[in-house]
Amino acid sequence: MTDEPLKLAELTEDMAEQLMDFLDDFAAAGEPYRGDYWQQAHDDFPAFVRKIRNNSEGKDLVPGHVPETMYVLVRGQTILGGIHLRHRLTRSLRDLGGHIGYAVRPSHRRKGYGTEMLRLVLAEARGRGLRRVMVTCDADNVASARVIENNGGRLDSEGLSKRSGKVTRRYWIDLDRAGGPGESS
Predict the structure, then answer these.
(1) What CATH number has the domain bearing residue 110?
(2) Strand, helix or coil at 154?
(3) What SS3 state is found at 133?
(4) Phi, psi at residue 24, to the nearest 5°?
(5) Beta bridge partners of 137
(6) How many domains would you assign to the chain?
(7) CA nearest 138: which of 93, 76, 85, 96?
(8) Domain of 164, in residue numbers
(9) CA gap 99, 132 in Å, rounded
(10) Whose CA is closest to 173, among 117, 110, 130?
(11) Is 15 within the bounds of a domain?
């Protein structure tokens, strides 16, 4: 394992091979990562990068979608996770999705990468002027709940999602809290 630091980065056109390796890891584990969303990455990677850059700037959005910035957690040349920061909420995102959605590649789970990736993106959210963010997870996803709670997430509600049909936990993370996420006040 490399001793290079973890960093959050936006995808660039020169990261095609690393992203395909990341997506292949999900496929090998039987977990397609957001399915059709990634098909364009396979078909035309430069167009995919332009699309996510436009999404971040609020350009050419699919109706009902909000601007979102996609980041990857990298160490050296390896993408360890992907995380999306939605710039605002809709009624649908309040039900399922929240401000932030993330995934750690299956072969690198249980190493603290999810906690670190969320911590890093919370700094980006602060930089965008957000004062608090909502993060959701399936009620049976204990690992994701732990990641959110390790970053200061406070359970707000739990209920059946109209979109997924699953019981969903909704957390809020206060970005103005003294000491920052994951630290005691």
Answers:
(1) 3.40.630.30
(2) strand
(3) strand
(4) -65, -30
(5) 169
(6) 1
(7) 96
(8) 6-174
(9) 9
(10) 130
(11) yes
pLDDT at residue 2, rounded to an integer: 59
- Scanning the structure block, which residue is given the tokens 């049976």? 140
Number of CB atoms found within 10 A of residue 164's CB:
13
What is the structure's pLDDT at 182?
Answer: 44
> CA-to-CA distance for 62 and 54, rounded, in angstroms?
11
Tell me: the pLDDT tens digits for 21-79? 999 999 899 987 666 678 888 889 999 999 999 999 999 998 989 999 999 999 999 99
Question: Has residue 23 been placed in a domain?
Answer: yes
User: Which pair of structure tokens corresponds to residue 66?
Assistant: 């909000």
Tell me if the pTM is above 0.85. Answer: yes
Integer Cα distance of 33 and 26 in angstroms: 6
Q: Which residues of 6-33 are buried (b: 16+ CB within 10 A; e: fewer)?
A: bebeebeeebbebbeebbebbeeeeeeb
CB 133 within 8 A of CB 94: no
